[in-house]
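Q: I have two molecules that I believe assemble together. Could you output structure tokens for the complex as a whole instead of separate predictions?
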Amino acid sequence: MTTTEVRSTDAGSDEFVPRSRTISKAEGWRRRGPLLPALIFLILVTQIPFLFTLYYSTQSWNLVRPGSQEFNWLNNYVDVFRDSQFREVALNTVIMIVGTVIISVILGLMLALLLDRKFIGRSLIRTLLITPFLVTPVAGALIWKTAMFDPVFGLINFVLSPFGVEQIDWVSRFPLAAVMTNLIWQWTPFMMLLILAGLQSMPKDIAEAARVDGASAFSLFRELTLPHLRRFIELGAVLGAIYLVNTFDAVYMMTSGGPGVASANLPFYIYQRAFLGFDIGQAAAMGVVTVIATILVSTLALRLIFKSFSGNEEAA
Amino acid sequence: MSTPVMHKKKKFGTGTIWTVLAWILGLGFFFPVLWMVLTGFKQEADAYSDPPKLFFTPTLDQYRAVLSSGIGTALMNSAFATIVSTILVLLLGIPAAFALSLRPVKKTKDVLFFFISTKMLPVVAVIVPLYVIVGDIGLLDNIWALIVLYTAMNLPIAVWMMRSFFLEVPSELLEAASMDGASLWTSVREVILPLVSPGIAATALICTIFSWNEFFFAVNLTAVQAQTIPVALVGFITGEGLYWARLSAAATLAALPVVLAGWIAQNKLVRGLSFGAIK
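A: Yes, here they are, computed for all two components at once.
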């Protein structure tokens, strides 16, 4: 965190950036001016609704029963923790995030290593590889559900048919795995891009020296490349997890959380409670629980991003 | 002669294997997208054939059907929400990024921390009150509700990303400008903005990708009038059963603008996705 401070005060000339303690009150406001609209806007749009969520979470309130709204202490939270479906869904969410992140990092690392050398068509392959991340997730989920996993005309069964696989309905037999396959396809390019940036920032002379000293390719990778890539992988994993907490499209399109809640994650379950069950109080309480759980990951994420990267030239 | 040639040959051999592998994996990851694009040019009978057909007589029937089914409104809504929210992000974000880099305010660190922390609040946590508030002010199924939310969604990424570009402006340039007696506004306009404009363009493209693809807010806060393209895609399934070829054509139309934006911005993609942390 200290690096940020140092960098930002060094960024301009002395004229532009006097030391912070000499900034006069008027100058302070002149500097704050350009920041305020964005800051106020963001506080209004993101923080105020969350205060409402906190408030709703203490209400017994179902939209189908008008006038049913009343304060019920922390009963919603008690119900949330008693709800065995909620526990199953929370576990699904963790499996979905951790599984997707780990597999995408491994695949992304392999792809990044393949792309970190010159070959014919390299930029074309890179362009093709990032496409799954760009395709509208709703469309991506449709492709997987229909073109890939369909029991009758899906391509996966077609490819596997010489091996004696008979018309497996992948999405209903393995709903969570099917959703995760789609997510891994979508997130591997993200990990690849981050790790590739890491590989390309590696000082080439050290590796060259080690190779001259007779180090094998594998020991080079283990002793030099992996330690260098560590923080890029960490950052990729944490950012991936932050984005993946919000996964909704894939579940909605492919399985609708089913069968039962076998493939539902927290966003989908809360959505069901709020917009299909109209249970505002319960949904709000689940939202609060999700946020508290996420804060644990976020704190780690923030520390990582600030510590190893913010304004840090090494990352360039 | 023998040793260097053999050495070269061997190197060529393993290199080829890696190249072929890279090509296979690259095409493999792209294949589902390619298949979607191909299916969009098929007749329904060809789309449902078993075994799958790689060769067929292409037709534009599906695109005609899609375009005449009123998907145009959804495309327009998506374009409007994406463009307006991106402009708002830049209007709010450029001054903020400036105030957090070149003429930093006190507590820059805390403000940056706050900005990024809003991205870590799962959106499900606020969807219930948003639905109630948006309903109360009469903006349900109104594109402006999405515009406000997309602006808030992209603003933290944009500020972090643009800040990383502002920090790269050489301080000597600013010194020189202010010694020449340039006012702050002049040096911003004449020196800083031209230097950071590629970065701003990349930021805009990344905001475009996120807004265009957004589904959660769109499906919960819009219905018919203001529905965006991802929501319209869902309507294609539930409304008409599963016409896979037609659906593929619609999905291709939906994905095309952002895929192009992403291809153009690919060198800056990492920077945006990592909040400017990786350059």
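A: One point stands out. Residues 2-39 of chain B form the longest helix (38 residues).
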